[in-house]
Write a structure and sequence with these properties.
By secondary structure, the chain is of the alpha+beta class. It is built from eight helices and 16 strands. The N terminus is likely disordered. Bound molecules: fe (ii) ion (FE2).
Amino acid sequence: MNQTGYLSRSYAPVRELKAGARQLNRFPNGNQEEHPYTLFTLKPLGPLLGAEIEGVDLGTPLGSDLKAELHRAFLEWKVLFFRNQQITSEQQVAFAKEWGALERHPFLPQGSAEEITRFEKNANMTGNENVWHADVTWRLEPALGSVLRLSEVPPLGGDTLWADMGAAYDNLPDEVKEHIDGLTAIHDFTSTFGRHLPPDVLEAKQTEFPAAEHPVVRTHPETGRKTLFVNAAFTVRIVGLAEEESEKLLNYLFRQAHIPEFQVRFHWEANSIALWDNRATQHYAASDYFPNRRIAERVSIAGDRPF
Ligand SMILES: [Fe+2]
């Protein structure tokens, strides 16, 4: 048997073609009894993640009861969508602050307020968001989540997809779970945001944001759920594995986000808002609307160190 015999068996492409039932648990320990929501209507967009919330005005402070119920929905559904919210940037920032301290993105353009990151995409600037990823995992403390609002929606396309990385973990074969248990991986911004920086600026940024080492499987700090925490945009290698083995394993793990049963797809309208849990999900912005424009503004909530 060659040296990669184990890998060849465990990560052979045939395994990814495996059909049949998948475990689709929204909660760490199966689908627990559900408690109804009393302060809004919640409409799931699928069995696993993503739900539209109706009956909440994001332009006014939430208050503690509504905040508590929305927080429960946020943990249960991982991505919450709100439609017909005619709110200002300031109100978007205020809503994001309900979930924690905010953080700025050091590489992306600022929007209409200091806390806002602006994504303006058109035929000349197509962006990097159509790769499955969680945001800023190259930070030592990656974002808890984000609030996204589209100020310009293309006439067709421009959907965003999210994948439930807890479900992706659940469905790994046992031998893969055992293999990755306790492994850590390096996350680095260089190959994305560092590509076009002058060498001296890149060096300064690399000092400010050194590559981060995170567990390959993180435990969600609020739900306790095990979550696959490597992504194709920022995870560069697995610590302690030879380069080829690391690459093979990472590519296999990255592809778990591609499985449709773990995903939800959201079609934006004017005044739609999404709030997602960046610790539990990855996302992908479909780049299928050029030469039309799509303008999005994001407010990010600071997170904690993965464990
Ligand atoms: Fe993103």
